[in-house]
Amino acid sequence: MNFKDINIGLLVSKRAMECNIDISRLCKFFNCSSQDISAMYDSKSLDSEILLKWSRILEYDFFRLYSQNLILYSPISADVKKNKESSGMPYFRKNIYTKEVIDFILEMLENGEKTKGQIIEEYNIPKTTLHKWIVKNRK
Description:
Blueprint: H1 8-19, H2 23-30, H3 34-42, H4 48-58, H5 63-73, H6 78-84, H7 99-110, H8 116-123, H9 127-138
Helix pairs in contact: 1-3
């Protein structure tokens, strides 16, 4: 899944149904109409403040969908490493490997899509971390 494939409105709608939250509660929480809620469900993207509110009420980190996507599809490059020292912006290491990320990486390895070396280099995953995942997966 890349950024183009993330339909956040659909995912929010799915989670809201799972949580069985009444539409009137959502309308009150967002201070909007049921038509506005439906419009959010139909939206491919949502404003970050709105998404934060959805994350709170549905107790789900929707931002994680995007950060996982960055981990998988935007590996750190040499330029980023060099520029992080001169940037005034916070720098976050890509070390939050969820089960989905680990499964994705191991599947590429098992299917022969990528070698261990390619995965280590392209996704900036430490060799020891990859080895631990492989050993755990075999159990």
